[in-house]
Amino acid sequence: MKAAISLACAALLGTAANAQPQNCAPREVVVDRLADRFGETRQSMGLGANNAMVEVFASPTSGTWTIIVTSAHGISCLVASGQAYETLAEALPADGSDA
Questions:
Q1: Per-residue pLDDT averaged across 12-18, rounded?
Q2: What is the pLDDT of residue 99?
Q3: Is the pLDDT of residue 92 over 90?
Q4: How many CB atoms lie within 10 A of CB 79?
């Protein structure tokens, strides 16, 4: 099923009219399709290299997840997707511990 989800995401996000990779589209298109097709919402985000925004989307119902990277120009690309998403809130190890 993971492979099917990845292929479906790649097919959904591709745009033949542009010279973009098949797994990229404007961010609003990607976010809408992740919500509509997979029930995924943004769970976390951060800044990567060159001001790219890295986001994790997931569905608490199905457990599917998707990681996208959005350029400063607003184009989002699928990086990875899978199943069995869990939300964790792990504490940092104490100072001086051998974690």
A1: 41
A2: 59
A3: no
A4: 13
Rounded CA-CA distance 73/53 in Å is: 11
Strand ranges across the sheet with 75-82: 24-26, 75-82, 65-70, 53-58, 41-47
Burial of 64 (0-12, 13-18, 19+ CB in 10 A): buried
Condensed to tens digits (0 to 9), the pLDDT of residues 68-86 reads: 999 999 999 999 999 999 9
**Angle of helix 2-13 relative to helix 27-38, nearest 10 degrees?**
140
- Total residues belonging to the chain: 99
Question: DSSP secondary structure string, 51-95?
Answer: G-EEEEEE-TTT--EEEEEE-TTSEEEEEEEES------PPPPPT
Q: Are 72 and 59 in contact (CB under 8 A)?
A: no
Residue 50, number of CB atoms within 10 A of its CB: 8
